[in-house]
Specification:
68% of the residues lie in helices and 0% in strands. The longest helix has 24 residues, at 46-69. The protein has three domains: 1-177, no CATH class; 178-232, no CATH class; 247-345, Arc Repressor Mutant, subunit A (Orthogonal Bundle). It is elongated and about 95 Å long. The protein has helices spanning 4-13, 15-36, 46-69, 80-103, 105-115, 121-134, 136-143, 159-176, 183-188, 191-202, 207-210, 219-232, 245-248, 259-272, 284-296, 300-311, 316-323, 327-345. By secondary structure, it is mainly α. Helix 15 runs antiparallel to helix 18. It is built from 18 helices and no strands.
Length: 349
């Protein structure tokens, strides 16, 4: 719209107007935030707000034209005065919003920890913090939007709730970028199926890692969707992580006399940790074992239970909490699988 010299002259001529506008908007947003945020520890100062506006005003006025063109209201013409008033309102709102984002740091972190795995959290935190703090105009427009769906007319959206929703949306956007959901999944319009595909195929996670994050969904539904995806995309969700003998027997050095111990550990690894696909490099005994395991049709979830119980030391109760099942359900499912595997392995030992 205009250059820096124009806005500098405009600011100098309207210094009293700026202070009145800051005061007016400060009181307005103070009412919005203090009524809806259930805490008195949020630090909001009129003096700090004034300094905040004066520090950002020039840059905001120069940069606002690009931001303004990206909004739904770009076809509405604004004169210099209206445009000026609008930008001050945005900056004051930005002061309140930035204060709230800083105040809710722990809340944002808890959402990130729940939604993301440890190896993802640092990247997600940096991305979300930049999105929340810097995108002032977009946040203001969404927060003050008048068009709401019919079922939301009576629902009051508080800044705290809005902040949580924004964090959730930004996390989803972070992981959706570069994850192309297959057409057959998109056509089904099943959010759970799409979410599981993202975990398995895009984020490269094992089912035992993400199942606890799918609260509110029945375990057999999750399992059914996992099987459905892995039939079409067999490379998703499998990690050939063979457990080393040294992990359970520190300092162990196998020799020719220990061939039976090595064979046993190898067979257990295949049974619990690996897929049952036969490869050309497999020995005859391994090929035979995989064929028997395939015929037994042992589900990945059952193998996961055995892994948690025998190798990671979880109790039935802890496994049930991790997988969203009752203790008696875990016990009832593990027992027959143990017997099946025992009968298969007895042929090779």
């Amino acid at each position: 719209m205009y250059n820096q010299q124009f806005w500098q002259t405009y600011i100098n001529k309207n210094s009293d107007v700026i202070d009145r506008l800051i005061d007016k908007n400060y009181k307005k947003f103070c009412r919005i935030y203090k009524k809806s945020i259930h805490t008195s520890s949020l630090k909001i100062s009129a003096i700090d707000a004034n300094h905040f506006v004066h520090d950002r005003l020039m840059k905001r006025l120069i940069d606002a034209d690009t931001l303004y063109k990206n909004t739904d209201e770009k076809d509405v013409p604004l004169d210099d005065k209206s445009y000026f008033i609008r930008q001050i309102s945005i900056i004051v709102h930005s002061y309140f919003w930035s204060s709230m984002v800083s105040h809710n740091y722990n809340r944002i972190e808890s959402i990130i920890r729940w939604k993301c795995f440890p190896d993802e959290q640092d990247d997600v935190h940096s991305y979300i913090h930049g999105q929340l703090v810097n995108n002032d105009f977009r946040i203001l427009r969404r927060f003050n939007q008048k068009k709401k769906q019919k079922n939301e007319k009576k629902k009051k959206i508080t800044p705290e709730k809005y902040l949580e929703n924004m964090v959730q949306l930004r996390i989803n956007a972070f992981f959706d970028n570069g994850c192309n959901i297959p057409t057959w999944i998109s056509r089904l319009k099943d959010n759970l199926l799409q979410k599981i595909y993202q975990y398995l195929c895009c984020r490269k996670k094992n089912e035992e890692d993400f199942i606890p994050k799918l609260k509110g969904h029945k375990f057999f539904t999750i399992e059914k969707n996992i099987d459905l995806i892995q039939k079409s995309h067999p490379n998703c969700g499998y990690q050939n992580t063979e457990v080393s003998i040294d992990q359970y027997m520190p300092g162990y050095k196998p020799n020719e006399m220990d061939i039976e111990s090595i064979t046993l550990m190898r067979l257990l690894n295949i049974t619990i940790f690996e897929t049952y696909e036969v490869h050309p490099a497999d020995t005859l005994i391994i090929k035979s074992l995989k064929k028997d395991l395939n015929r037994a049709n042992i589900r990945p979830s059952h193998r996961m239970m055995l892994r948690l119980y025998f190798f990671e030391g979880y109790t039935y109760k802890e496994i049930g909490e991790k997988m969203g099942m009752r203790t008696d359900q875990v016990s009832g499912q593990i027992r027959p699988v143990r017997e099946t595997i025992k009968s298969i392995l007895s042929k090779y030992l």
